[in-house]
Amino acid sequence: MLEQWDIDQAICVSHTSKENTVLRSGISPEKVFMVPNAVDTAMFTPSPKRLSCDEIVIVVISRLVYRKGADLLVEVIPEVCRLFPKVRFIIGGDGPKRVRLEEMREKFSLQDRVEMLGAVPHAQVRSVLISGHIFLNSSLTEAFCIAILEAASCGLLTVSTRVGGVPEVLPDDMIVLAEPAPEDMVRAVKKAIDMLPGIDPQVMHLRMKKLYSWDDVAKRTEIVYDRAMQSSTTNLLDRLPRYLTCGSWAGKLFCIVMIINYLLWRLLEFLQPAEGIEEVPDIGPLHAQLDSRDDLCEAEENRI
Question: Which of 2, 8, 272, 289 is the Cys-Cys partner for 228 at CB 3.0 to 4.6 Å?
Fold first, then answer.
């Protein structure tokens, strides 16, 4: 149980993740905080030109592995293409399940409607996203899913499996959820296609800027770290018995690692005491610095 280990505070990216952590580890809920991920909205922006809906492009960017639901895509894509002749897929990503997707494309003769990009560098993800109208996430398990944030920030309507913390990520009018089953995912795609005329990518992007900010994440994370720093410290002799409860072999191994770390820390403290290390000053937010600098310049001008 983590409650018996060296856990002062913990951070989870969703309420679902927090619940799982508390249930599986035994750590007190008061020690676990929910701090979501965020998205760089300055990097992930919609296309300046709104895409025509004459052809609907569904984008998938994911590792092509079992956990990401690649097997679901193999069943969903042919059915969506059969029902909607104007739909085309762009799939970015690589992995062991890529072969199955390529076989599916060959089997149903979808070479002109399913484009396989392979691995996509993160710097090029936006250029792929803004080529589409809908982002499709088929994960079987997910604590949060930053890819959904990136897609929404680019103005794409999301269709996703209802797993893990995904239902917490976006408001209901920005995402269509489905059970991780082919029939329900096809239903969700159909619903998303019907919703597209009412989706404004620029408005969606502005909403994402308000919903998710790395500045906000940093502030909330700092609060948790401050709480951890204020927690009462426990000496090594009191902590070692906790590690022994981790297992007959793992517990002993953890104890050895902790003892080595402790001795290394004492050696470094002897060679270079902490008192002799200069601390980084807290310079505050950039906007506060700029305001202060402007005030100084104005005061100097008035003096002259």
Answer: 8
